[in-house]
């Protein structure tokens, strides 16, 4: 009667075939193999007719196409009155796409299914390494890893990468791993685990694609980088701080009490960027991440949301708003991306037009940034001067109104108008007003430091310098800047 027998051939040593598998092979007339390039085949019972799907690998352009053709063919064979025995390396459900998919479709089509267990590559691999897979070892496929930009597992846990079958895949997988691991991180290539040809070679990560023995039975073992090297490990630290027996200060914090710290840490990040202090930037980004995790932990405790929801929300938003990267949309310029982003954002909000074009500007922005955002919005609806001369004229007008202002209230109002026009002037010139002012502040700090240095050289407090002496030191600072440039 129609039936499919999924049979595991073990890691490669014929002596490691299970008794059940041997009995099936001994009584079968024929067997179909995903690949005949497996050492166990040499130990098959005499007289067994062996078919392989190796020619599918040569004919198809992608592995996905190969696996789909194999699955379809096995289901077709399984529908015959005599059924089919389909054998795969290792275990039918461990690192074996065709086994899982055949089982799923067979059940859906009502074809009787039998699974004959086989020793997977995992047991002899961990035995060869002298390691236990528990408690945290991650399992990954080399083909998937090679197609990614960062590893899909945390570096705080060990990982085993299967199907590192040639040096080209090893090279691509290596590049993905080096996005997280140092190139000198010690790893192990495990060749032909469970067979007489078994070998374990330890080496720096950057050397793995140089090993001439890489083949169909090669795996890569990656020891944990460090116990504190993952997002999850840091999330546990924050949760521990907030636990009943954690830190009293952290436990008493709320979303509102933490607000000022998030703002402070953000500005410290900007400061390190302005200084091009990249070591400092790494530290300050960690401080911002701490604030994010504290808010997420508080929300989790209050039943508001979890860190998982935060990650899913931004993950899905980025994928959704970049159809030119993750979908079929085509864009030519950065401006096309911005237009697509705005259209998708409007669609997400249900096509409901905002009450004002200024809706959506964060009220908590610093005043200079808010002015920039306001002007960007109104320009999009045509509220702008026809050329930059209009901005110069408006600036002159506002400066004159400052001169004529009588009361402190009038002066504050007119100076605000001048600042707003200056932001507009910066926009017309393609200058980021916020960044320009930050850089001006930094220049002032450096120049004033020269004045203070001059005072110390003379053994005076800075306030004891005359205005002429201060001006001379100021000009010296400017000259040093020009010389530095």
Account of the protein in words:
This protein has 485 residues and is α/β, with parallel strands linked by helices. It folds into five domains: 4-119, Cobalt-precorrin-4 Transmethylase, domain 1; 123-222, 2-Layer Sandwich (Methyltransferase, Cobalt-precorrin-4 Transmethylase, Domain 2); 231-303, Helix Hairpins; 367-431, Helix Hairpins; 435-484, no CATH class. Helix content is 52%, strand content 10%. The protein has 19 helices and ten strands. Strands 3-2-4-1-5 form a five-stranded parallel sheet, with helices on both faces. Strand 6 (138-141), helix 6 (142-147) and strand 7 (159-162) form a beta-alpha-beta unit. Helix 8 (231-242) crosses helix 11, helix 10 packs antiparallel against helix 11 (278-302) and helix 15 crosses helix 17 (408-428). It is elongated. The termini are far apart.
What order do the helices and strands follow? EHEEHHEHEHEHEHEEEHHHHHHHHHHHH
Specify the CATH homologous superfamily of the largest domain: Tetrapyrrole methylase, N-terminal domain
Return residue spans where pLDDT drops below 50 for at least 5 consecutive residues: none
Q: What's the alpha carbon Rg, rounded to whole Å?
A: 33 Å
- Helix and strand content put the structural class at alpha/beta
C-alpha end-to-end distance: 85 Å
């Amino acid at each position: 009667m129609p039936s499919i027998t999924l049979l595991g051939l073990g890691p490669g040593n014929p002596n490691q075939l299970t008794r059940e598998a041997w009995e099936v092979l001994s009584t079968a007339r024929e067997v179909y193999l995903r690949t005949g390039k497996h050492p166990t085949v040499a130990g098959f019972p005499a007289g067994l007719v062996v078919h392989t799907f190796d020619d599918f690998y040569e004919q198809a352009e992608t592995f996905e196409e190969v696996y789909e053709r194999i699955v379809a063919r096995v289901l077709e064979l399984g529908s015959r009155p005599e059924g089919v025995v389909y054998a795969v390396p290792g275990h039918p459900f461990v690192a074996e796409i065709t086994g899982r998919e055949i089982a799923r479709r067979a059940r859906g089509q009502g074809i009787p299914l039998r699974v004959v267990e086989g020793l997977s590559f995992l047991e002899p691999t961990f035995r060869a390494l002298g390691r236990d897979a528990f408690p945290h070892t991650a399992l990954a496929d080399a083909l998937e890893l090679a197609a990614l930009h960062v590893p899909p597992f945390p570096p705080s846990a060990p990982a085993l990468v299967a199907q590192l079958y040639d040096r080209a895949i090893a090279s691509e997988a290596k590049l993905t791993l080096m996005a997280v691991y140092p190139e000198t991180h010690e790893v192990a290539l495990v060749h032909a685990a469970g067979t007489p040809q078994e070998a374990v070679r330890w080496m720096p990560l950057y050397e793995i694609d140089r090993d001439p023995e890489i083949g169909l039975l090669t795996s890569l073992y990656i020891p944990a980088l460090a116990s504190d090297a993952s997002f999850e490990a840091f999330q546990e630290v924050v949760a521990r701080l907030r636990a009943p027996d954690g830190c009293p200060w952290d436990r008493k914090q709320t979303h509102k009490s933490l607000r000022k710290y998030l703002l402070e840490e953000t500005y410290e990040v900007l400061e390190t960027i302005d200084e091009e202090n990249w070591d400092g930037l790494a530290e300050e980004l960690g401080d911002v991440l701490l604030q994010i995790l504290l808010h997420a932990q508080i929300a989790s405790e209050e039943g508001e949301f979890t860190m998982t929801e935060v990650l899913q929300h931004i993950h899905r938003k980025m994928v959704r708003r970049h159809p030119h990267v993750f979908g079929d949309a085509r864009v030519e310029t950065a401006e096309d991306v911005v237009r697509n982003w705005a259209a998708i954002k409007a669609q997400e909000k249900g096509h409901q037009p905002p009450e004002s074009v200024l809706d959506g500007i964060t009220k908590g922005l610093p005043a200079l940034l808010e002015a920039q955002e306001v002007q960007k919005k109104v320009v999009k609806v045509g509220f702008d001067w026809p050329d930059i001369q209009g901005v110069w004229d408006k600036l002159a007008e506002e400066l004159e109104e400052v001169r004529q202002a009588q009361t402190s209230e009038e002066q504050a109002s007119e100076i605000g108008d001048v600042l707003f026009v200056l932001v507009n002037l910066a926009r017309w010139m393609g200058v980021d007003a916020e960044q320009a002012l930050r850089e001006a502040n930094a220049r002032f700090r450096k120049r004033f430091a020269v004045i203070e240095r001059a005072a110390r050289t003379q053994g005076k407090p800075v306030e004891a310098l005359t205005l002429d002496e201060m001006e001379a030191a100021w000009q010296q600072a400017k000259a040093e800047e020009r010389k530095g440039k």
